[in-house]
Amino acid sequence: MKVEFAPLNIPLARRLQTAAVLQWVLSFLLLAQVCLGIIVLLIIYNYWFLYIPYLTWLYFDWQTPEQGGRRSDWVRSWTIWRYFKDYFPIQLVKTWDLDPSHNYIFGFHPHGVLVVGAFGNFCTNYSEFKELFPGFTAYLHVLPFWFRCPFFREYLMSSGPVSVSKKSVSHVLRKKGGGNISVIVLGGAEESLDAHPGKFTLFIRQRKGFVKMALTHGAYLVPVFSFGENELFKQISNPEGSWLRTVQEKLQKIMGFALPLFHARGIFQYNFGLMPYRKPIHTVGLYPWHMEVPGLVFELELQLLVYATATWSSSSIFDLHHSSWQGWMLNPLSKARDSHTSWILVGGPPHPCSSDPAPNLRAD
């Protein structure tokens, strides 16, 4: 295979965009291990005056990721995030005005490999979020695992993410006055293993937690779909039942997070590496739904609500793909959504839409 190298006369802005994304990918893949190694070395070499104060403070600060986190507008406004956003580029599209007197759950799909769209739109000050949703604060919920790593947790919280635990989501949704948004990547680690270009496999039907939280706190549900998320990386083929997929699923159960084996382009060439492809990401927020059920919610009611929510999410995305009233959207968005021909809604192992009695997401 002939290696295709990047030209030498690339504008400085594009080089800075590449550098911004490179540091983010390396931070995602390696920074937690580096931070853990630092604390271990401090203990081994007995720098007690450094690690004892920090670990003492960490003990008292342990619950912060479940109590709204500790975001920093200074970190979120770093110029590096503007270059990060422009690399793909990332665009946020609003289709409906939201009332800032209410709280909302943004059900984000798809997970993709590294959830680039969710980070770019909700964890930096360079997205269109503040202009499109004035008076709102978004909290991206991520795995609690990331907040157990010393030092790394501080860096992560500074850009806005909080834990995805029930306690953390409740903390956001029960805030008085409204204007708070819990952004939850509903498919989670399972969905990342099916993040292949040209294909959307959505894990929705067995996700009951976000419906319970919406009912408990009277929050509105907003489906959010990120077109282009699955185009950023290629994964080594891991069909259901293969030895690789079996190993990945077992590791996921043990560790709590998935390990997709992905690749894309490099820094100076386009054939291989861990840098994502320059593909546009269009993150679209759809119509808000209010789940109103008085009193206690029994299991049967909950099952119906989960099915209704799956129908809401799938039909909303399907309508976005086909309906004429979305004609005002930008042409790049139309191209992005039309390039995906495989839509699968699953509640466990993926299966063909044709044999699925539940809402069909296929868009041929």
UniProtKB/TrEMBL annotation:
User: One GO MF term, please?
Assistant: 2-acylglycerol O-acyltransferase activity
Pathway participation = Glycerolipid metabolism; triacylglycerol biosynthesis; Lipid metabolism
Note whether Signal occurs among the keywords.
no
* Keywords for this protein: Acyltransferase, Endoplasmic reticulum, Glycerol metabolism, Glycoprotein, Lipid biosynthesis, Lipid metabolism, Membrane, Transferase, Transmembrane, Transmembrane helix
Please write the reaction equations for the catalytic activity of this protein.
a 2-acylglycerol + an acyl-CoA = a 2,3-diacyl-sn-glycerol + CoA; a 3-acyl-sn-glycerol + an acyl-CoA = a 1,3-diacyl-sn-glycerol + CoA; a 2-acylglycerol + an acyl-CoA = a 1,2-diacyl-sn-glycerol + CoA; a 1-acylglycerol + an acyl-CoA = a 1,2-diacylglycerol + CoA
Q: What class of enzyme is it?
A: transferase
Which biological process terms from the Gene Ontology are attached to this UniProt entry?
glycerol metabolic process; lipid metabolic process
Stretches that traverse the bilayer: 21-48
Specify where it is mainly localized.
endoplasmic reticulum
Matching Pfam families: DAGAT
Give the enzyme's EC designation: 2.3.1.-
Q: Which GO terms describe its cellular component?
A: endoplasmic reticulum membrane
Q: What is this protein called?
A: Acyltransferase
Read off the lineage from the record.
Answer: Eukaryota, Metazoa, Chordata, Craniata, Vertebrata
Q: Which gene encodes it?
A: MOGAT1
